[in-house]
Amino acid sequence: MIAIEKMIAEDHANCVGCYACCSVCPVSAIIMQEDMEGFRYPQVDTEKCIQCGACEVTCPGLHQVQTSEEREPESWAVISNDLTSREQSSSGGVMSLVAEDVLRENGIVFGAAFDEKWEVYHTFVEKVEDLDKLRASKYLQSRIGDSYKKAKAELERGREVLFVGTPCQTIGLKNFLKKEYNNLTVVDFICHGVPSPAVWREYLKERVGDLNEIRRISFRNKNLSWERYLLSFLLKNDNKYLAADLNEDLYLRGFLHNLYLRPSCYHCQFCRKNRPVDITLADFWGVKNVMPEMYDEKGTSLLFAHSEKGRKLVQQLNALKKKVPFCNAVQYNLAMVYPAIPSKHRTEFFRDFKNKPYNICELIEKYTKPALKVRIKKVIKNIPGVYWLVRKIKN
Ligand SMILES: Cc1cc2nc3c(=O)[nH]c(=O)nc-3n(C[C@H](O)[C@H](O)[C@H](O)COP(=O)(O)OP(=O)(O)OC[C@H]3O[C@@H](n4cnc5c(N)ncnc54)[C@H](O)[C@@H]3O)c2cc1C
Question: Which range marks the domain in which residue 224 is found?
Answer without folding.
Answer: 74-336
